[in-house]
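Morning!

As promised:
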Amino acid sequence: MAIEGQDAAATGKPDNSRFNVEVAGGLFLIGLAIVGFIDTYSLKFGQMSGVGPGLMPRVTALIVGAFGMLLVAQGVRTPGQRLQGWSLRGLTFVVGAVILFGASIRPFGLAIAGPIAILLAALADPNTRLKEAVPFAIVLTIACIVLFKVVLRLPIPLAPFALGY
Amino acid sequence: MFDLLDKLALGFQTCLEVVWMIDPWFGLAIPVPLNLLLCFIGCLIGTLIGVLPGVGPIATIAILLPITYSLPPVGSLIMLAGIYYGAQYGGSTTAILVNIPGEATSVVTTLDGHQMARQGRAGAALAIAAIGSFIAGTIATLVIAAIGQPMTRVAQLFGPADYFALMVLGLMFAVILAQGSVPKAIAMIVLGILLSTVGSDLETGEERLTFGFSEISDGIDFAVIAMGLFGFAEILKNLESPEQRDVVKSQIGSLMPTRDDMRQSLAPIFRGTLVGSVLGILPGNGAVLGPFASYTLEKKLAADPSRFGKGAIEGVAGPESANNAGAQTAFIPLLTLGIPPNAVMALMLGAMTLKGIIPGPEVITKQPQLFWGMITSMWIGNAMLLIINLPLIGLWVRLLQVPYRLLFPAIVLFCCIGIYSINNNPLDVYLTALFAVFGYALMKFGFEPAPLLLGFVLGRLMEEKLRQALSISRGNFATFIQEPLSASLLAATVLLVLVAALPSIQRGREKVFVE
Amino acid sequence: MLITRRLAVNLIAAIALCAPALAQQNYPDRPITLIVPFAAGGPTDVVARIVGEHMSRTLGQQILIENVGGAGGSTGMTRAAQAAPDGYTIAVGNMGTQSAAPALYPNLKYDPAKSFDQIGVVNNTPMVIIAKKDNPAKDLKEFISYLKTNEAKISFGHAGVGSISHVVGTVFHAQVGLKPALVAYRGTGPALNDLVAGKIDFMIDQALNNIPQIQAGTIKSFAVTSPERVQSIKDVPTTKEAGMPEFTANAWNAMVAPKGLPPAIRDRLVEALGKALDDTTTKKRYDELGSTAPIGAERGPVALQKLVETEMARLTPILKAAGAVAQ
């Protein structure tokens, strides 16, 4: 879970790299544009009266792609800040917690999905202590049940295996 | 004039009406100002759901509808309205404290509001948002009372072509809104428009960019993108740089705005109110443009525009006022015409029909008590919100002192619950996770999410109106120039582009001279 | 020892076998989820809430409304079709989801006639043919000839492909032989706004959305599509009276449950729905909405099954011919 390029970020000094933020961002946009363009390729561009469903997505995808190329060109010409590394620990646990919440909320309900999401998310921070996180997860889940189920009456499953809802 | 006072008096009378209720324990009859109480409950719930990320007024009003079955019509509508504008108040709190815009209208508040919080001025930001909202609410109430009926003409003036032109103008705001490089901002706006086309096409029903998921055939929900790009991506950023995230809690400045703050904010509040009031009346959710327009206006008028995005108090005062004014004037088309301008108002219309009131052009004359009662309740509600919110500021600010290792898992859970509750669909939760990764990537590549969100919000309306206008004109693009309103809005856009481009052109020339 | 153990096993097996039967007898012993496949506040949601509230009193359990929107209501109905048939998940669909959807969505994951156990029609809402107020026509016949002579500049507003206003409009255009410019809006609200403002020429929509506008004279109405006139707009003739008897349409809503519902539970739900429809408050609400409750033979599972089948048979060819197919 090393955080590459953190030094550059911390000091804010641009290190002269040709594969810099601009280039990477540009390539990212080009990639998105290609996805957007290809997926809507089969849609009609225009009809007898007015425009078809394909116009907006394809025109915008083209513009996004064009800006992507502009950024790549700019980035290659003027070397700038290198791309920072991605912190995988944060991504894994926070995104993982969200996905697991989605997967467990309907079968297991808030009573189970809640603490799981909190604990998994908490692992994203190296400072987390289980002794503190576990009771916190339980207390917060109870608070959420009171808040969302009792006060706001949201139709969120609570514990379907025991209560049936 | 006296006529108006008479009507407002009727409204106050309705709001303060006392109902004798029998208490369940001793059987004593107690006088209860029921409507006042319901107004308070509505504002309180509204503030609560506004603060909770993801849980919006639509879900809450829908869920609370059954409670209103046993209440009198006027009272229940006063309560539901309170939830709506209360949520606008509460939404700014989350935007300022944790940089999560609960709704499209609070995106702008994150820009300078959260920066103020990072500088230890969260209290001042929250207070100015509350005060600005109160002033805006007061003025908007008077506007509805005095010129509500003639104002509906404004909504009728805007045909699809004019609306399209307005959206184009709105997109220009996004460029001005951006802090970093202009090409990157434009790329984000356009990417936002591209995202807005996801879903089945309104005209032909064809699926676009849904990749086979029928659940997103109505488009991606705003909250899904906002929670992903702002909420979760912000958490990932903070986790990465522990030294930065502590800035917020290390120092807490004064809870109240200074005299200087107030002086700086007063004009933006009035300007924001004006802009928000007008845009709020437009059909199809014109109210979302209000805060963006107000921010643009303030940034253009400011002596030093570079302060914006770094904690300028005008950047909170103006948009927050515009937001609240718009939330209020959005009731005009509903109350005077019976036509809901946005999804929340459509729900209010449903609530009214459930209570046996079918709103329409004649509701003012046939049910003056309902009409004027609701309007005065809005002003009373705004006063209540100020009273609820000002003491809460201390509490909110203290929330920032909670260690981040506990705060962020709590935010994750709140966001998850909120997102699930939008459609009761786990797919929305997965999508948010996807947008979290997407937002993290954007951040790494040096893009800003705010212009993307504006593009997303305006894009859908823009395409709809473009195609409606062209359907009506049978494909004739000249319609945009033939309609006077549309033509002048497009001219304004061109003017704005020139004004924005001029400084850089001049700078370019200076450069030439230096060389 | 052995015997007692075997006894215990048998007992457990017996209890396990009895459990479903017991569950049926005690039905309902926990809150029932009522799926509404549209946003809260819309016409289907409002009637679902009106009858749901009364049914919950009859059944002695809360009925929780769950709005599951998306894909013209088919997302919510798909979920309802796939839910456990235990009577704890029911749904209220409409004419669109329960008869037009198969023609509109080739990839639909349910069959309105086969995936559900029908409970009954909840209400019938007449549609109104409405036009902007400065349209010169005086009656339906004049209006139709006006539409035909001015076909090149006529625009018809609807609330999106698959919406009731779109489906019924398609039927109308097919019967009249008209090809107006179709203007799609997100919901009837914005469409009505442009009709009142005179930006579009006409619409066909559920009466309840338009009654106040018709009463106030901000739009013109030429006919209601039901066999009877609508109480709150008595001056508006029916299509039959106005000389177009072949065009009738009702925007009906219907309550269904996933296929395989135990008959005992179905009977309880049918009975509870019937009681709700007989209630005077319900009748009053329906009147205000310009809507009617099914009476006599129109009620119950058999009538609904027949309605779904005939409507599907009627709408599918028209919609397919008009090319209104979503992918």
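Chain A touches chain C through five residues (CB under 8 Å).

Hope this helps with the figure draft.
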